[in-house]
Amino acid sequence: MSLRPSEREQMRKGNYKQSVDAEESRRRREGQMVDIRKAKREESLQKRRHVGFAASAAGAVAPTGHSSALQQKLEGLPALVQAVLSNDPNVQLEATTQFRKLLSIERSPPIEEVISTGVVPRFIEFLTREDHPQLQAVWALGNVAGDSPKCRDLVLGHGGLFPLLQQLNEHAKLSMLRNATWTLSNFCRGKPQPNFEQVKPALSALQRLIHSQDEEVLTDACWALSYLSDGTNDKIQAVIESGVFPRLVELLMHPSASVLIPALRTVGNIVTGDDMQTQCVIDHQALPCLLNLLTNNHKKSIKKEACWTISNITAGNREQIQAVINANIIAPLVHLLQTAEFDIKKEAAWAISNATSGGTHDQIKYLVAQGCIKPLCDLLVCPDPRIVTVCLEGLENILKVGEAEKNLGGGDVNVYAQMIDDAEGLDKIENLQSHDNTEIYEKAVKMLESYWLEEEDDAMPSGENPQNGFNFGNQPSVPSGGFNFG
């Protein structure tokens, strides 16, 4: 049997995951669709702030006549700058408020124009004051930092973090807590990420803020933690050592999705770390919470995120896979693999396949007993080549256990190969021999050769060989000279 042309090899290496190996089975948050979803959420969050704040502020620029009104405001910038730089507290307050309103415009706020006036350091200076400009300055800096990573880094570079953290104390009014926490989350977010050493001091404040009873403060504090935990293992370790984890697990049961989602994102980021960091999630009893997210009536995005988190736990060691089994998570995972929307199915497939990759024979037999074979087979026809590969890897790991059981028992039947055939998986694997993706094609051929070829050879008359790939079942054989059509 001939393999595909060698020139496809380079394309395969460039475009597709070579195998679901131990290093790649634990996945960072990645992929274009994930980035798009995050961008939409963050744009929505920013828009909520702009609309909410601007609408409540007298004199905010209205959408009607946007360009002309904005132009008038910009023409008044030099006078506002002079007012901000004055020594009169009342004049300072009024000017800072006007800047804040300008930065709160919903559509294309003039961030760069305001930055170019040089007022950002003055706003940061106002954070250290005991009088009124504080709140307005926090508000303005949040809008500047939230505009882009470049603007965020400018505010951080002017030393904006520590004066902001001083506002997050037990004596702060709720309005200040809400605005300062939101601004802090903007200091932490964005790609490329801020210098971690620059924002790491925020962790101690966030550890306190996540104990707030205010939903808005909780939401923004959890998003800040999700940004800080999204990265290398040293960042993850710093988040763990800040002491946030017990409360984060509690927040996985929060009734509001706006709090639950960033808390879950943070937990999910932590299990992209090493086995010890993943163990922290297990030790703090997060698995029962994840089970709840899979089984209760939560929105699609939450179930998908929970499956992604579990997939990174099943990418761990055997004890961690066993912890997932002991938490009774496998059956709900298999149910989602069978019945959920495709986006959820994909993450559930990763979770099951990772468990087959690192699990013991008994653990893999348990997965089979929970019914994972049929839904894995069903996904072999999905349009996502990476998920097809993941499912093939899972089925191959199951077949290896079936082969070991067959040899151990002295039998002549791989029970799991028969179960895959019964689930119409064999037909699907055969069809993958013509898949455009070389890795999938080669994986399918290897599986057919390893687990079904001997059976086919036994049924074949002596002297005959399979042609043009493998055919199993009752398919007609191709005449050696091909077909003649008159």
Automatic annotation (TrEMBL):
It comes from Urochloa decumbens. Forms a complex with importin subunit beta-1. Residues 1-58 form the IBB domain. Gene3D superfamilies: Importin-alpha, importin-beta-binding domain (1.20.5.690), Leucine-rich Repeat Variant (1.25.10.10). Binds specifically and directly to substrates containing either a simple or bipartite NLS motif. Promotes docking of import substrates to the nuclear envelope. PROSITE patterns: ARM_REPEAT (PS50176), IBB (PS51214). ARM repeats lie at residues 201-243. Residues 1-12, 23-45 have a biased composition (Basic and acidic residues). Belongs to the importin alpha family. This is Importin subunit alpha.
